[in-house]
Structures are given as C-alpha cells and as structure tokens.
Amino acid sequence: MQNTEHAIEVTGLRTRYGDREVLKGLTFSIPRGKTTVILGGSGCGKSTLLKHLIGLLRPSAGSIRINGREITTLDEPGMDRVRGKMGVLFQGAALLNSMTIADNVALPIREHTKINEATLQIMVRMKLDLVGLSGFDHFYPSQLSGGMKKRAGLARALALDPEMLFFDEPSAGLDPVTAAGLDELIMKLRNVFRMTIIVVTHELPSVFAIADYVIMLDKGQILFAGTLDGLRASDHPRIRMFLERKPEQQAYSPDDYFRVIAGE
Amino acid sequence: MAFTLRKDISDASRIINHSFYWTFISPFRGKPVRIRAMISEMVKAGYNSVPIVAVISFFVGIILALQAAYQLKRVGALIYVANLVGVSLTRELSPILTAIIVSGRSGSAFAAEIGSMKAAEEVDALVTMGINPIRFLVSPKLIALMVMVPALTMLSDVIGISGGFLLSVSVLDMHPYNYYQQTINALLVKDVFTGLIKAWAFGIVITIVGAYQGFKVEGGAEEVGRRTTSSVVASIFLVIIFDLFFTMLFYYFT
C-alpha cells in the first residue's frame, strides 16, 4: 500500500478481441474512498474495462495495480486474495437461481470463512437489512423483481465487507424510482463505509447523482477524466453530444450513400 | 479454422485438468467437494433415471433373447440364449444403453445448466467471489456420474437378464432352473467387471462433454440450446469411441 490516494492505477491498458482493438492504451487512476463513474456510449469498451479491473479478462498489454499490487500477472490463488477485497454487482445481478436469497448471500461467507451457522444467519440478515430486503431470506431469485434482485446481488457483493465495490450498469432495466433508490444505496455505502465504488453506466441522471469522479470512454480511449464539475464545464464536442443527448451526425454524401447501399 | 481448433483442444484439456484437480487433489488440500450438491446430483442423475433404465433394459433383454432364439433354434441350441443374453448385456449393452440414457438426461442437463449460468454472468459472479466454477459446478457432477453410471449399469444387467429369463421360460418353454444355471455358468466375474469399468469411464466422458459445452456458451439462450444438443451428440459419439477402445483393450488383455 505505497500509494494510499489511489485504489486502482491503470497504465497503458490495451486489449484486443481477434484483430479488433477494444481498449487502446488507457491510463488512469481511481481515487480511494470515492465514487468513480466510468461513462460511455454502448460499445465503447466500458464493460470490457470493468472485466479487466475485476480480473475476469487479461489485457494484451499494460498494467493494472490494485492497492499497489499488479494483477495482470497474478496467478489464480493470488488473484483470489485480491478478489476477497472486492464485491461485484453484475448487470443482471447474477444470483444463483437454484438457491434462496439467504443462501446466495451466505455463499461467499461459507466458502471463505469457518463461521458457525447461527452467526452466519445473523450476518446474512444484517446484509439483507442493509439493502432493504429484510424478510426475503427464503425467496428464490425468480420470485423477486428486477430491483430487488439487484439489491440481493448487492447484499451478496457486500457479504465479505469489501473495500471496493464494482457495479455494472446498476440502473439498466429499472424504472426511475427504483434506480434512484439504488443510487441512494450506493451513496450510503460510500458515506457510511468509506468504500471505493466504481460504477460503469451510461445513465446520465444517476451519474450526476452519485459521481465524485468521472472517467469517460469513447471508442476505447479516454475522452475525459476528472471531477463531475469538470465534466459539466467541458466543451469537447463528443462530451457535449453525450451530455445533451444528441444523436451522432450521419452526414453521408450522396456518393457515400450509394456506396453503402450497393454494399461496397 | 486451425486457430479455433487449437483453442477448442486447449479449452477441453483445461476443463479435463481442472475437473480432475478439483475433484481428486484439492480435497486433500482443504478444499472439499460440496457433499450436499453431490448427493443432489446423484439423485437427479441416478435415482431419477432408474425407471427409464429399468424399462429399456427389460425390453432389450427380451429383444436379445428373441433375436438369439431366432438363430439358435435352427441348430437346436436354444439353451445358449442364456449365454448370449447374459454375456452381451453385461459386457456391452448395459453399459452403453445406460450411458446413452444418462447422456440424454444428465449430459444435456449439465450443458444447459452451466450454459445458462454462463449466459447470465453467474459463472463470472462465482469467479469474482473467489469460487472456482469447476469446483463448484463440475466436481459434484463428476463424482455423481462416476458412481451412478456403474450403479445403473448393474441395475440394467439384472433387469435385462430377468427380461431374457422371463421370455425364455414363457415363450421359448425353457426350464427356469436350466436357464438360471446356464447364465451362472456363462457369466464370469470379469464380464461384469469390464462392463462396470466401461460404465465408469462413460460417466466421466458424459460429465466432461456436458461441462465443456456449457462453459463454451458465450451468447444467450439460442446458444444454450445449440450447445445442449451438441453435448448429447458429442457425448454419445465419444461414448462409442471409448467403448471401442475398451472393448479392444479387454479383448486382448483379459
């Protein structure tokens, strides 16, 4: 922990699927104890970036340091130790459908500690209460609504009291009220537990509600990294387009259009 | 093409390696297999397929006896129906029939379960929780099939021979004691034993193929369906290949 200011430092991160380069040399750092939003349009590589940060994908080049520790060259047991300090909420919550909510939340605790069953049950109820799901212990994921599933997924991500929480599109597929409730929960986690929170999203209202620090990606490159006010004040045309919800200009010349429909 | 083939081979060998590591080596390093999941897999793959295995084996026993009688009657050696039914069931037909039923029921279920978990990011979630998906999902299934396919094969042996017996004493007018005695004399321990070894190997093949196809899923529901189908086709194909291999091995070395 030589650098206490930054939880994650990424330098020169490049990755490719086949011969298409998805991330083109990203360099940035994520401050500790703050909410960082990774923002960008569809297909800009933000989900790929998230998968690199949680160690599901390995980059073609570049380095990722978490708490000062290089994870791109780490073996599986070492990676699992780093992951012990991380919680991840996936887009579809990714709860195991064959288990009850309580068992889902208990799963990481059961796997990594030897706590007795009674204590475990109390811990599970605490986590469920934290996300506002008290009394739903014995429900199966299929019996819950989308917003409740995400809360349950969050309770599972919080099970081992992580230092870092990752969210993949937390408000995708939720109505505005439920999404705002989830945003509030994210803020609560940052304020009360001082967690480092990394949110990948393209939903502007939730960005303005939760972000301390924004990293904006476009076509695999960093367009902007800085505070929320900095983002608002930016006059970069791509950023303005994103913030003002303007569609991409498609200025075809008649010749180009002819070429496109002729399939050349 | 060459690239994807190489990748397929390396993926398959990784799954084989990891499955065996997490099933047989890691329990001695303090990461035990999940017992409860294993029992539930045993019930699903073994106990629940008892009726279908029993019915099919019974009918195959009858069919075998009839087909044998058709030829043996002409040479007046009807009593050898017992030998033919007993030996061909224990050495060959019971293991292969059981394996085909199990790959249709359980192999496809493994591929579908793992595949839909992969599509819903549940496998990724396991990894980020520090839980190895192979240990969590494949090891219980591997042990379950390694136990249950031989067990079902034994059941199939018994019921298939009874099918042949019932047909012989009723339709072919054989004396029950003669048939019984003839079967006992014809069957060697090694016949039953080689059949069970085959069944054990088939259990491994079915689990690995189902898991491999499941973990290969990248997209959504449509691919889960496609992978499920190919898991059944591939596991039946591989079961036959392994059967050929073992039969040759036992022919020369027992």
Number of helices, counting only DSSP H or I runs of 4 residues or more of chain B? 9
- Judging from the principal axes of the Cα atoms, what is the shape of chain B? elongated
Uncertain runs of chain A: none
Helix share, percent of chain B: over 70%
Class by SSE composition of chain A: alpha/beta
Number of DSSP E strands of chain B: 0
Q: How much of the sequence of chain B is in beta strands?
A: under 5%
Oligomer: heterodimer
Number of discrete helical segments of chain A: 10
Overall mean pLDDT of chain A stands at 86
Query: What is the string of SSEs of chain A from the N terminus onward?
Result: EEEHEEHEHHHEHEHEEHHH
Question: How much strand of chain A?
Answer: 25-35%
Number of strands of chain A: 10
Structural class of chain B: mainly alpha
- Alpha carbon gap, first and last residue of chain B: 42 Å
Biggest β-sheet of chain A: count, sense, barrel?
6 strands, mixed
Q: Using only CA atoms, what is the Rg of chain B?
A: 21 Å
Largest interface: A-B, 23 and 12 residues
Largest sheet of chain B: none
Protein described:
The complex is a heterodimer of chains A (264) and B (254). Chain A has helices spanning 46-53, 76-83, 101-112, 117-130, 146-157, 176-193, 204-210, 228-233, 237-243, 254-261, and strands at 6-17, 20-31, 35-40, 61-66, 69-70, 86-89, 164-168, 196-201, 213-218, 221-227. Chain A is of the alpha/beta class and 264 residues long. In chain A, the strands form two sheets. Chain A has a six-stranded mixed beta sheet, with helices on both faces. In chain A, strands 2-1-4-5 form a four-stranded antiparallel beta sheet, with helices on one face. In chain A, helix 3 (101-112) crosses helix 4 (117-130), helix 3 packs parallel to helix 5 and helix 4 packs across helix 5. Chain A starts with 5 loop residues before the first strand and ends with a helix. The mean pLDDT of chain A is 86. Chain B is mostly helical. In chain B, 84% of the residues lie in helices and 0% in strands. Chain B has nine helices and no strands. The longest helix of chain B is centred in the middle third of the chain and has 39 residues, at 81-119. Chain B is elongated, with a radius of gyration of 21 Å. The model of chain B has no long low-confidence stretch (mean pLDDT 92). At the A-B interface, helix 2 and helix 3 of A face helix 5 of B.
